[in-house]
Design a protein that fits this description.
single chain; mainly alpha; 13 helices; 0% strand
């Protein structure tokens, strides 16, 4: 157990150093990820996976990586590499919740995810696959699985199955959308992106209104069974 905690702390320190020295800002800067994938030759997939592992558990959305992957690589390669990257980052989030900061994590799992508590307590692959189909690779999903009694092999198998549809959609649909926008006149592309952003903001406001004004992702005081 001590060796596991030491390894996780080392990964956490490396991730914090990555952020402190500007790595996260570089990742989020437009075009850098795509250039990294195309200009590093055969080590591109390795760099891609490692960057996903050290940034996704801290909240960087997976589509930031999977969409550019769908543009620069053939779909089967992009899906496979994205799957490996997501599996590694999910395991780090799971391990962090289980062995490092269990109580801290429990208090920060969004309330809407606790609908899976009873089903996860029963064990089996089906609730894990269902959780992944609904919430994908969101870090709180990894945390929730980490604070339950789900075994590590079951977690890995259920996660491996459940994240496939999301990876396929992000790579194929996301990459296709970006290609489509790049082929449009600049003014049309900007208008399309603005319309999508306004639509997304409207959807978030509508959902918040439906929830009675409660902020999405508010820490939940109820402790799920471990």
């Amino acid at each position: 157990m001590n060796s596991k905690i030491g390894a996780l702390l080392a990964v956490g320190l490396a991730a914090l150093s990555f952020v402190a020295f500007g790595g996260l800002g570089w990742v989020l800067d437009d075009g850098n990820v795509a250039r990294l994938l195309t200009e590093t030759g055969p080590i591109g997939p390795i760099v891609f996976v490692v960057v996903m592992w050290v940034t996704q558990p801290f909240g960087v959305p997976g589509f930031v990586y999977m969409v550019p992957a769908g543009i620069v690589w053939p779909a089967p390669v992009a899906i496979a590499v994205s799957w490996v990257g997501n599996m590694g980052s999910s395991y780090l989030g799971f391990a962090f919740a289980r062995w490092v900061a269990r109580d801290w994590v429990k208090a920060r799992i969004p309330p809407r995810m606790h609908v899976f508590d009873a089903r996860l307590a029963e064990g089996g692959l089906t609730p894990i696959v269902g959780l992944r189909l609904v919430f994908g690779q969101l870090p709180p999903a990894d945390w929730l699985l980490g604070v339950t009694r789900v075994g590590t092999p079951t977690f890995l198998l259920g996660t491996g199955i459940g994240i496939i549809p999301g990876a396929v959609v992000a790579v194929v649909a996301g990459g296709g959308l970006i290609r489509f926008l790049l082929n449009l006149p600049a003014a049309t592309a900007v208008s399309a992106v603005a319309a999508l952003a306004i639509g997304a903001a409207g959807l978030m406001l509508w959902r918040r209104h439906r929830r009675g004004g409660r902020p999405v992702g508010r820490p939940h005081s109820d402790q799920s069974p471990a």
